[in-house]
Model the fold of this input.
Amino acid sequence: MENSFENKPKSGKGLTIVLTIVALILLAAVVVLFYRLNDTKKQANETEQYLETQKKSLTNELQDLISEYDALKTNNDTINQKLTDQQEKIKKLLNFQASNIQKITLYEKELKTLRDVLKSYIAQVDSLTTRNQQLIEENVDVKGRLDVARNENVQLSAEKEDLSSKVQKASVITTSNVVVTPLNKRGKDEDKSTRITKIRTCFTLRENAIAGAGSKEVFIRITRPDEMVLAYSEADVFTFQGEQIVYSAKRQVEYDNKDLDICIFWDNNDKLITGTYTVDIFTEGTLIGTTKFTLKK
Done:
């Protein structure tokens, strides 16, 4: 009996030790869990800050890209529309949500693609600008001679009724009633450059009993306000005062020395701009008529 009473205090002491150890283990577990939660929260904050920084950077780059596309706008409506389409894509991307690294990476790839497209448009615009400048420079000399020829043509038309020399009469076929009409897709008169599908030039080849009758090619040459000639191809040329110059459209006609009413059409190839245009009419290497018309925006 004495031994039994002596063991009870020892048993209570052991239980205390076990409970203390369990408490320490639980405390250690709580401490470890606390630090892990803090570490996870810290990592989440750092990730969120990174995503926000990347989003701001991408947003700034996309906005800069819109400005770069704006700077490329030209007088070419086709290229302008393509640039506008790209800008619309960029504006849609500006509403993106940077919720994870994968999405950020995806948007960075989209940005790279847009920059590559921008580079291709820069090359196109540079090429177009260079070629337009070359055409303008090439037209300077021709324009000077055309101005002289136009003045001579006006004077010749005014004096034609008084000419007595058959040689003089035979050298030139003149025109009258020259009318240029821009048309929309419905064939109606139109003066807005963006709605025009064709330009119709109608006139009368004047009666001339001395001029040679037969088949004749009649050319029209439409010059924009910036001195660029509207032509489908650089190979579309005819001879004027010993030099090959481009034309906009032509027509083969049968001339029998009597008044002949004809019309020549030019189909719009997306090169129209606003301003005043000049239309020159040629046959047999001679300028025979000139008029002007104006297009609005």
Notes: The chain has two domains: 2-127, 163-295. The first helix runs from residue 2 to 71. The beta strands are 175-183, 198-205, 214-223, 237-240, 243-246, 249-255, 260-267, 275-283, 286-295.
